[in-house]
Amino acid sequence: MAADIDFSFLDDPEFGLPSYFKPKQDPMEEFNTLLTQEVPPIREFSGKDSEEAKKLFKFAKGTTTLAFVFQGGILIAVDARATMGSFIGSQKVKKVIEINDYLLGTMAGGAADCYYWENNLARVCKLYELKNGERPNVGGAAQILSQMLGQYRGYGLSVGTMIAGWDHKGPGLYFVDNDGMCLKGNRFSVGSGSIFAYGVLDSHYRWDMTLDEAVELGRRAIYHAGHRDAMSGGVVRIYHVHAGGWTNIIQAEDLMNIHRQRDAEKGIEFLDDEVTFNS
Amino acid sequence: MFATKNEYDRGVNTFSPEGRLFQVEYALEAIKLGSTSIGITCQDGVVLAVERRVTSKLIEPSSIEKIFEIDSHVGCAMSGILADARTLVDHARAEAQNHRFTYLEEMLLQSIAQSVCDLSLNFGEGDGSQKKPMSRPYGVSLLIGGVDKNGPALFTTDPSGTLFKYKAKAIGSAAEGAQTMLQEEFKTDLSLEDGVKMALRILKQVMEEAITSQNVEVAVVSTQDKIFRRLTPSGVEEYLTSL
Amino acid sequence: MVKESKQSQFNPYQNNGGTVAAVALGGRVAVGGDTRISVGYNIISRNYCKITQLTSKAVIASSGMVTDAQNLHKLLLARITLYKHQHGTEPSLKALSKLLSITLYSRRFFPFYTFNLLAGLNEEGQGAVYGYDAIGSFDELKYGVQGTGQELCMSVLDNQCKGANRTDDYTFTQDPVELIRDVFTSCAERDIYTGDAVTVWDITAEGIQQTSIPLRRD
């Protein structure tokens, strides 16, 4: 019977409007939340209806990051290019986020997402430390991050990060992504250039490497990724995680430097190696 | 309605005809029951020193914690109800970390102390939620000391939400005696070392029990590295023997 | 009537075009923004200033959608006023850089359609520029460009400010204000959304000087 159907939605003046278009009940609400917010309020941005709108935003992305555990600790190597479509937004992005004196996080996916949530992790870790008198271990920190991201699952966050640090169990390396995945491992590479980096990493990795060998491996892997992946490049940055915290071993080395060095080793004149003229 | 004067203390937010808030005044009394705490600003840092009242020899002295770290550059000593202090300290910690998160800088001491005061007077009937977590005044006074970009500083807060900046201040049961001694001994060119010694010397005189490295707690924040540090019992012992 | 079919067409954003640029050199930073506003191919304003002064030492320059930029600037000014009252001082450039990032990210799921540059003098008195994407990813730079003329201007600034990939011995000594003017006059020649005039804000320890330089008006 028709009477069973609830037609009250016809009286709703806002029926059919997208959620973000609905006027707020309290016009100051959003202002207030912006002043005191801890995490961004969840409001659905479009889903299927405005793919067009999404395309307007060229969020910074594209990356090669890698980290591996070896006898001397953990080595982290990253590139520094940020691409927005085909435009290079920056060649010297800091893709290693210094969460605090004993934790590092890498950045792959949405730069703002990684930066915001890893900073949030720093805040939570410090409060944990003040409350409990000791720092959370690396696995705990990674788990906290993955839970924070898990709460926003399906909302389009883009995060692929490696959390590296040292706790009472020794080195800890975890991979965390935007779906809330949290994996422990000895060797990870994330980003569009990871396929190239993995190739170098897997074929030359040994547990008993010295620190110098490890640095060279990380540098090489990033170099090859930057060479073959158009979305990666810029400079290479290398960090070493050890019992005393972390050290920034290479602050910023231009990938062109490495390229010239390799050419020199092979006796190739710069820019003269691959060009063939049509004559 | 109010037959006798005493009945004006029934409601926590009821003024007496003379303009007094009795519940707040009673809370101030609670502090006078607490152990003595001393804070001194020196030329190169801030000292916080607290008496631990070990009421039974079966108590583990190290479990009595009356100095808290608020952020890496700020510490806080308390007198009064310990549990109330924890609520205020938790609030201050969250504020300090939120400030770091939002502005990428350490929070000013004055702002941290002010945020504690904002919570201090936020008592009364409520739903027990975050907005109004407390039904009565907090029976605690805090000495908030540390180093920020303006140099070393020391603030006190009390149940009425009043905030004062001090060069040196004592709170708790022996506050009066200790404050007189501070007044006599304080100099503006005090070094951190001398500050620690002065705080211990005063505590030694006002404490009922004999002072040992077990029944006092000392923390410093130096201008050199702006890091909050607790003194170890052996560190305190060294100072005590030099007195 | 039930409004049903509108939903799938709804797009809350438009790009009103325009370019903003900033160059820092030593204790000085020059910020420029053109004054043209467009909707599609129609030019609807020729004298809109894309730059707002935030503190005595910092300005924000935004391109993208004008309504969002105006809202963002007002929101920032409100938060800076609150900061001043709470902490008794103006926020430093570094504090502002993070505040802007957080403010942008607070709208992560319905972003401000703005591309921003924050420029000013830091606590050491050195000029600095911060570049942002729409949701708060940011980086400290020596020079930056945002907006429809980004691709045109950036390569010139790379060459002039950084001497990127140059093989000769080069150091940047040019007057930053002059460079901003050159970049905008060049950009107006090739970008339909950039033109009319450029407002240049010259920030030094002495204060902020504003000038306006005419550009092509076609």
Automatic annotation (TrEMBL), chain A:
Q: Which GO terms describe its biological process?
A: proteolysis involved in protein catabolic process
Where do the catalytic residues lie? 63 (nucleophile)
One GO MF term: threonine-type endopeptidase activity
Coiled-coil ranges per the record? none
Listed SUPFAM superfamilies: N-terminal nucleophile aminohydrolases (Ntn hydrolases)
Classification via Pfam families: Proteasome
Any one Gene Ontology cellular component term annotated for this protein: proteasome core complex
Question: What reactions does this protein catalyze?
Answer: Cleavage of peptide bonds with very broad specificity
**Which keywords belong to this entry?**
Cytoplasm, Hydrolase, Nucleus, Protease, Proteasome, Threonine protease, Zymogen
Question: Where is this gene product found?
Answer: Cytoplasm; Nucleus
Gene3D superfamilies from the UniProt entry: Glutamine Phosphoribosylpyrophosphate, subunit 1, domain 1
* InterPro entries in alphabetical order: Ntn_hydrolases_N, Pept_T1A_subB, Proteasome_bsu_CS, Proteasome_sua/b, Proteasome_suB-type
Q: Which domain of life is it from?
A: Eukaryota
According to its UniProt entry, the function of this protein is described as: Component of the proteasome, a multicatalytic proteinase complex which is characterized by its ability to cleave peptides with Arg, Phe, Tyr, Leu, and Glu adjacent to the leaving group at neutral or slightly basic pH. The proteasome has an ATP-dependent proteolytic activity.
Per the record, the similarity remark reads: Belongs to the peptidase T1B family.
What is annotated about its quaternary structure and interactions?
A: Component of the proteasome complex.
The protein depicted here goes by the name Proteasome subunit beta
* Native species: Blepharisma stoltei
TrEMBL record, chain B:
**Keyword list, A-Z:** Cytoplasm, Nucleus, Proteasome
Q: Which residues form the Proteasome alpha-type subunits domain?
A: 8-30
The record ties this protein, via CDD domains, to:
proteasome_alpha_type_5
Chain segments annotated as transmembrane:
none
| Predominant cellular place of this UniProt entry's protein | cytoplasm
Q: Which InterPro entries match?
A: Ntn_hydrolases_N, Proteasome_alpha, Proteasome_alpha-type, Proteasome_alpha_type_5, Proteasome_asu_N, Proteasome_sua/b
Which Gene3D superfamilies did the record assign?
A: Glutamine Phosphoribosylpyrophosphate, subunit 1, domain 1
> Could you name the domain of life of the organism this protein comes from?
Eukaryota
From its record, what is one biological process in GO terms? proteasome-mediated ubiquitin-dependent protein catabolic process
Q: What cellular-component terms does GO give this entry?
A: cytoplasm; nucleus; proteasome core complex, alpha-subunit complex
Where would you find this protein in the cell?
Cytoplasm; Nucleus
Family per record: Belongs to the peptidase T1A family.
Outline the subunit composition: The 26S proteasome consists of a 20S proteasome core and two 19S regulatory subunits.
Entry protein name: Proteasome subunit alpha type
UniProtKB/TrEMBL annotation, chain C:
Give the UniProt record's GO annotations in the biological process aspect: proteolysis involved in protein catabolic process
One cellular-component annotation, GO: nucleus
Cited SUPFAM superfamilies: N-terminal nucleophile aminohydrolases (Ntn hydrolases)
Q: Does the keyword Nucleus apply?
A: no
Q: Where in the cell is it found?
A: Nucleus
Q: What is its main location?
A: nucleus
Q: Is this entry keyworded Cytoplasm?
A: yes
Q: Which UniProt keywords apply?
A: Cytoplasm, Proteasome
Identify the Gene3D superfamilies for this entry.
Glutamine Phosphoribosylpyrophosphate, subunit 1, domain 1 (3.60.20.10)
Q: Which Pfam families match?
A: Proteasome
Q: PANTHER family of this UniProt entry?
A: METALLOPROTEASE TLDD (PTHR32194), PROTEASOME SUBUNIT BETA TYPE-1 (PTHR32194:SF2)
Q: What is this protein called?
A: Proteasome subunit beta
